[in-house]
Design brief:
By secondary structure, the protein is mostly helical. It has eleven helices and no strands.
Length: 257
């Protein structure tokens, strides 16, 4: 068991890294914060709700900076928020019913998909900006947005891993618009999820504060660096780390059976 000072320093550092990378890639920093909280001994529902509070901090910070840069599509963002928030509320309500073993399995699977997406994002997206927006595809995007909102509150990771590809592949946004708009949607969705989790007395507020301090600063760094940064090395490193952590979660599930 770590002493409180060491624990706080680690969480601020995790929040800083997660906020920076999450803001740059538009995927939400919770995908890195939840594993850290779990490894520090928090039970699943407390880890997810605590992470979600820091995700809210990250997305607020990113949205402020991206708003200054005028890179957010507010109209599309609000349309997606209308579907994401009900999903976020449902996810928070369902979080109490998930066992530690189930959490390890499902979160491990989510990490694998996220890691593969980040590793091969450029190949997957291709010439997404040239794609046309069709009504059936927009309906599919909004249905996926509801699911992303639920995943956000259920696992404390934010739904950017769904929001960003949907906006790029289906709706035709560029990465320079999709990542900022994703952060705006994450802000609204995560706040809704946090309010429900707080009502259910799930979060550890001291640990959330430490994460949020780092995440808020990191999100400012990531948003400013996103214009000029070469993402390839960061994507590859983050993708490989997520897949490695996923293997650990799935291994934990296997030995707990």
């Amino acid at each position: 068991m770590l002493d409180p000072i060491t624990n706080t320093v680690i969480l601020v550092g995790v929040g800083l890294g997660a906020g920076t990378l999450g803001s740059m890639l538009g995927v939400g920093g919770g995908i890195m914060m939840v594993p850290a909280l779990t490894f520090l001994g928090l039970p699943p529902v407390q880890a997810t709700s605590t992470s979600l509070m820091a995700v809210a901090s990250t997305s607020v910070s990113s949205t402020i900076e991206y708003s200054r840069q005028k890179r957010i599509d507010y109209g599309l963002g609000l349309e997606m928020v209308a579907f994401a928030i009900p999903g976020a509320i449902l996810g928070a309500l369902l979080s109490d019913s998930m066992s530690k073993g189930s959490f390890s399995l499902y979160f491990g699977i989510l990490l694998i998909f996220t890691g593969v997406y980040i590793l091969y994002k450029n190949s997957i997206l291709g010439d997404a900006a040239a794609r046309k927006r069709s009504t059936p595809m927009r309906v599919a995007v909004f249905a996926a947005t509801f699911g992303a909102g639920m995943i956000s509150s259920l696992f404390g990771v934010g739904g950017g891993v769904i929001f960003v590809p949907a906006m790029l592949l289906v709706l035709g946004l560029t990465m320079q618009r999709a990542a900022p708009t994703s952060q705006f949607i994450l802000m609204m969705t995560s706040v809704a999820g946090v309010l429900v989790h707080a009502f259910l007395l799930h979060p550890d507020y001291l640990q959330a504060l430490a994460l949020s301090v780092g995440a808020f600063a990191g999100a400012q760094i990531g948003a400013r660096a996103s214009r000029a940064a070469k993402e390839v090395l960061l994507q590859r490193l983050l993708g490989m780390v997520l897949i490695a952590v996923a293997a650990k979660f799935i291994f934990d599930w296997l030995i707990s059976r």
